[in-house]
Amino acid sequence: MGDNSQQFSRAKGVIPGGVNSPVRAFRSVGGTPRFLVGARGPFVTDVEGREYVDLVCSWGPALLGHAHPSVVKAVQDAAARGLSFGASTPAETELAELVRERTTIDGTRLFDRIRMVSTGTEATMTAIRLARGATGRDVIIKFAGHYHGHSDGLLADAGSGVATLGLPGSAGVPAEVAGLTLVLPYNDLDAVRAAFLAHPGRIAGVITEAAGANAGVLAPERGFNRALAALARENGALIIVDEVLTGFRVGPAGWWGLEAARVVPDGAGWTPDLVTFGKVIGGGMPLAAVAGRAEVMDLLAPLGPVYQAGTLSGNPVAVAAGIATLRAADAAVYERVDAAADTVASALTAELSSAGVEHVLSRAGSLFSVAFRPDAVRDYDDARAQEGWRYGPFFSSMLEQGVNLPPSVFEAWFLSAAHDDAALDRILTALPAAARAAAAA
Ligand code: PMP
């Protein structure tokens, strides 16, 4: 099969940049992307047979660890019954009910109805269309540094790979479309108030990551989400909460669930009009969803005038993976993931401090990231104002020592319930040299 370099050269000859998603390209950290051939528990294995402790976890889905036996079995059983029917299945309803039950806190449902799609991008795109269809308005508010997938209207000042590559947005998005998105600083309710005042009767919806995690981790300030929802409602706009990344990862009912259950203070007592899920809901298979209040969701075809569809939507193999993942993701799983995150995050900050590297750790539940700057990150401008060049040498040192980190300082680190003491030890052992590499950069 050749080594990673040979694989990369070959891939570049036929796939743009050699990757099927830009964040995989190591553009900001340098070096050769690893070509993976397997993943099990907390580990991934590359084409050269090297094993790495994985802190990417497929960018979130692998909450239980890679290739969890009950998920693999569910997928194999479903595949044996047929790969895709293009028709309704009992399992779709089972997953829909399972998700709704899980996200009901103290009798309050996060949503009434849910529709399944294949990617987070589709989920947020449909949520935006629904907000416009429901209100008859066109303008959308999003926050700088938040990433909601790659649909035209949501790429302005986006996080994730758009931030990593330092792009303001994307070529190919018509100015008329981009002009319908207002980009505001995160955690700034005054900016939201001002936008509603400046565009009376024009704003269809406000979309926000439940907790920001695509420009580094950037939790909402206390009460921000609830106040944002109230502002949207007062102004006749819909509030859309994007839990593609946080949903079922930071807790059994996502970030909203942590707020509703008062694990996160001052956030309870509200529900979004629309919410989007992805990643963990499909357990590593292509599955995502948009959900919300019945009056809004029932505007979708075939009941209503807002069109949305998908050949592979509710795919039976993906649905089986989602059900098996959520059934296995009990309280003990979240305790393990939280504990693993505590261990890695505190070791990370201790080693960077002892190497004399100025840094701040941002955290939202079990998600965390590091920023090379002296004080806390509140918005995208803060996240960009850091000594980001220190991350490349840090990342490369970890990789050399067998730890696979997200290849960008703007991405969250992902743990899983399979990160046992042996896996964590390997991370902790690698940190001191990596911290010295960051210091020397
Ligand atoms: N929303 C958020 C918050 C995300 O983190 C992502 C992907 N990282 C998306 C939407 C898009 O999901 P997908 O990559 O499945 O299209």
UniProtKB/TrEMBL annotation:
GO terms for cellular component: cytoplasm. One of its GO terms (molecular function) is transaminase activity. The modification N6-(pyridoxal phosphate)lysine is found at residue 279. Pfam families: Aminotran_3 (PF00202). It is an enzyme of class 5 (isomerase). This is Glutamate-1-semialdehyde 2,1-aminomutase. Gene3D superfamilies: Aspartate Aminotransferase, domain 1, Type I PLP-dependent aspartate aminotransferase-like (Major domain). Keywords: Cytoplasm, Isomerase, Porphyrin biosynthesis, Pyridoxal phosphate. It is found in: Cytoplasm. Homodimer. Pathway: Porphyrin-containing compound metabolism; protoporphyrin-IX biosynthesis; 5-aminolevulinate from L-glutamyl-tRNA(Glu): step 2/2. Belongs to the class-III pyridoxal-phosphate-dependent aminotransferase family. HemL subfamily.
